[in-house]
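Tutorial handout. Part one gives the primary structure; part two gives the three-dimensional structure as tokens.
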Amino acid sequence: MPHWLQLMAESLPSLLWAGLIFTIPLTLLSFGFGLILGLITAIARLFGPAPVAAIARFYVWVIRGTPLLVQLFVIFYGLPSAGILLDAFPAALIGFTLNIGAYSSEIIRAVISSVPKGQWEAAYSIGMSWRQAMSRTILPQAARVAVPPLSNTFISLVKDTSLAAAITVPELFQAAQRIVATTYEPLILYIEAALIYLVLSSILSQLQVRLERRFARYGGMLEANA
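Part two.
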């Protein structure tokens, strides 16, 4: 067996384990919390009082206008100088959540705004409250439009979690860095890590296509029944 192939085979379990224990949980938790934060931010900007909307706009402006890596460094390395100490994983989770929240809020805000005003009027005409109209009428329609951009955001997040290695989270990419430090084979190990990210992204892309088709059929059924 060639040396490079043997090295990849030996390092594969360690890389996959790091991905399973750290990369995937970090991705799922960050995206889940980020979606909740994004929905709250989008609603605050669309329907909140002026001060709340201004705070939401400021948050989105700051996060979208600064690099994710800098945000992670501020949280993990900067906050301790203010007396706030965080372990690496919680710091990464907060950083990715804030980042996803800002970007997803723009997507959610756009898709909610794209729902025709007649849908609001129809919901109110049958006695729904604002909360009921939002949860039963507006959000289900907006979700169908939001699936492609939010799916792309999720796939990007999988790759962006490699930045957590910079704040010592032992995820997939840092596992590769640690093996490189002992084997002195950076090209082989980094290519292997890249291939794992490529496989994950490809699987998620296929799931995205299926999800989009399912929502398209659901949308067609709604239009047929309208």
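Part three, for discussion. The helical segments are 3-47, 50-64, 68-78, 88-114, 117-125, 130-160, 172-183, 186-225. The chain has one domain: 3-225.
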